[in-house]
Amino acid sequence: MNCSKCRREAIIHQRYSGMHLCSEHFTDSVESRVKREIRKHHWVEHGDTIGVALSGGKDSTSLLHFLIKTFGHRPDISIHAITIDEGIAGYRDLSETETITQHYGVPWHTASFAEEYGITLDGIVAGQKDDRRSCSFCGVLRRRLVNRIAREAGCTKLAFGFNLDDEAQSVMMNVLRGDTERLTMTQRENPGMIPRIRPFAVIPEREVALYAHLHVGSLADHGCPYAHNALRGDVRRLLNDYTWQHPATKFAIRALGEELQGRSTGPAITPEVCPECGEPAFGRCRTCAVLSEVKQDRKR
Length: 300
What we know:
Layout: E1 12-14, E2 19-21, H1 23-41, E3 49-53, H2 58-71, E4 78-85, H3 94-104, E5 108-112, H4 113-117, H5 121-126, H6 134-152, E6 157-159, H7 164-177, H8 180-184, E7 196-197, H9 205-215, H10 231-245, H11 249-260, H12 286-299
Parallel strand pairs: 3-4, 3-6, 4-5, 6-7
Antiparallel strand pairs: 1-2
């Protein structure tokens, strides 16, 4: 099949657009949509220092590649990489991530749960009856730590490689939980919290994977051993099955999520810090709540 825009051989069929694209026009399609999303939200501005949460997987590495390609030539913008070691045996290989940062020539900052919290995720799970809450614990602790590292590195933006599938899954998970607060919550500014950006949020996962294959080569894909119990896995399968029949589904769900955000009618909240750790939070932070629970579990 030839490319819909030229006579070269197509490498992908975008079912939601009906187009067949060659490697060149596929790359243009991805990068133009990402650039449009960045402009729409003013995610990259003059003088920014962008910290990329780099796991070493296809999404975050592709995002680093795109940002270097697009903004690396600008003297007013700096790009750093930040990697968090959660402490999961056989999962996080920092040497692979270090190789990526050396290839792109960006400053690399690392931190670990063990150093920050005095316990690894494996240790936390070992203190539980099972591993069903591992993803919840990990997400809370990782978000706090990556924010602190980004702040200390002087970052003004914190970039995550979340793709369209991730975004649609998050909206559906909140729907299935009946979590109205999260569905309508606006991103609130708080001193010390680095604004987060998600440039790949408009790109389907399979297209990010193809973009990675074309531009950053083969990457080790170590699946987290604790992800099997996560609700996200069930929602991923549900959405993938439905999207096969209705190709634009994930775009529609993400658009719904954006439409619902900002509809909260609650009073404005004054920026605060956690009374226990002093980190930015609206009241007691979830990190301290998790660590308190973990400490109690270890005493039992």
